[in-house]
Amino acid sequence: MKFLIDDANIQKIREIYDLYPVDGVTTNPSILAKSGRNPYEVLKEIREFIGPDAELHAQVISLTADKMVEEGRKMAEILGKNTYIKIPTIPEGLKAMKILSGEGYNITATAIYTPLQAYLAAKAGADYAAPYVNRIDNLGANGIASTKCIQNIFENNGLKTQILAASFKNSQQVQELCEYGVGAATIGVDVIEGLIKNAAVDSAVNAFIKDFEGLCGEGKTMLNCDK
Ligand code: G3P
Fold it and tell me: Which helix (H) or strand (E) holds 122?
């Protein structure tokens, strides 16, 4: 399962990239709005930081296929070859996906709340389909079950589209989809930090240090305990 950051805050992206094994960054218009800055300025800054080979996902705004296609072409031109054009999975979006995928652009079908949206997006040529796990839960349905259903639909129909699971609220949701082997997950910074936060681990690590320092002296490590 690829692991992407669902955020546009460059400082947070830098911090997560420094520590965690990350495959790229996803954004949406609401995430970009939080920056209060020009969207291209922010996206270019992210691209510069993550490099040309990492995935950068950014979304079109228009509601007609023709305009979505124009936006997508412009975004890919400005943001580079590993840009994924996020297109909402509505009828006009399906048309835009067919056109842009036919031209060889990378497509992420977004705003997916049902398995049949994902099926249609895959048929329209999307590289990724992004089910909104937690938002599906909030509708009284089951986001994990819907995402697994999408994976089964893709596999059983020979569709090459990958899942890019989005909208996570907690580690358990991430773990369940990781175990199931979906293609990718994009996760907000708070949830990323929660994936590995564990007081028992901190306590074990601190006990090891205390014991070692008891043996060799304060501040000693394997680098200098022979001096
Ligand atoms: O990009 C869509 C998805 O990441 C939304 O997440 O947390 O706003 O439900 P959230």
Answer: helix 115-123
Ligand 1, atom 10: closest residue by C-alpha = 167
Q: Which residues of 69-108 are buried (b: 16+ CB within 10 A; e: fewer)?
A: bebbeebbeebbebbbbbbbbeebbbbbbbbbbeeebbbb
71 lines ligand 1 (CB under 6 A): no
Strand 83-88, strand 55-59: pairing: parallel
pLDDT of residue 227: 87
Q: End-to-end CA distance of the chain, in Å?
A: 44
168 lines ligand 1 (CB under 6 A): no
* Among 52, 53, 70, CA closest to 61: 70
The answer to whether residues 25 and 13 touch, using CB atoms and an 8 Å cutoff, is yes
Could you state, in chain order, the average pLDDT of each consecutive group of 10 residues for the chain (227 residues)?
Answer: 98 97 97 97 98 97 98 98 97 98 98 98 98 98 98 98 98 98 98 96 98 98 95
Entry pTM? 0.95
Instruction: Please work out whether the CB of residue 27 comes within 6 Å of at least one atom of ligand 1.
Output: no
Amino acid at 83: T
Q: Is 86 a catalytic residue?
A: yes
Nearest to 197 by CA among 167, 171, 174: 171
